[in-house]
Amino acid sequence: MQTTKKQIKRTNIQKLIAERMLDSKLNKPSIYLEACADVTELMASRRRLKRQQGVRVTSNAFYILALARAAKQMPLTLAAMNGGSVRIPQTIDVGFAVNSAEGLMVPMIQNPQNITLAQIAEKEKSLTEKARSHHLTLDELRQPNIALSNLGAYGIDSFYAIIPPSASTILSMGNAAADAAVVNGDIQSRKFVALSLAADARIVPSPYAAKFLTTIKKLLENPAQLIDRA
Predict the structure, then answer these.
(1) In a 10 Å sphere around its CB, with 0-12 CB exposed, 13-18 middle and 19+ buried, how is residue 136 labelled?
(2) Which residues contact 140 (CB under 8 A, 6 or more apart)?
(3) Is 45 helix (H, G, I), strand (E, B) or coil?
(4) Full residue range of the structural domain in which residue 152 is found
(5) What is the pLDDT of residue 214?
(6) Is residue 86 part of a domain?
(7) pLDDT tens digit string along 52-81?
């Protein structure tokens, strides 16, 4: 009995994405680090913002802001190879992964550390809709110098993403899941999210990357520091 195999032709965008990801995977020797953040207060803060200000702030907005704030303190995470030297950009261009029918798109928010959580959430929503309807502008698709990928909505606990070709660092996070923890001597149910960092080892030394990830973790566990301008 003869069977026929279905072949799916890739679009030009899918081919380009595949080529760029392969090039990055082959040419960027990466280090990988993990941490776990207690985001119980962050989740409660989202509800308070919705109730008190009518602002719907996604978890991603907190992650984007924490990533940008940490990168401002530790700019090597934004750097790129430039011949025999390392070039540090003047802006923080955070790309975030969006799944679309055409494949993985990475729209970019420039300098999110200078705007509020509500503004970040609004930009994220608009760019996600544009990515899925193929209406992103070239400026919005400009290559980021740091990136974020969140598969929590798919029930994934943790994973490592491939660093985009234009970046040296990418933060990945999974689902915020409940677990038991000891708080002030009492056992409580808390929400935890796994944070996974991939960084280009040619640019970002391991101790530097570790401090960077710890800085992000501390910001997420103390969301008041991120809400001060919300």
Answers:
(1) buried
(2) 107, 108, 127, 130
(3) helix
(4) 28-227
(5) 98
(6) yes
(7) 777 789 999 999 999 999 999 999 999 999
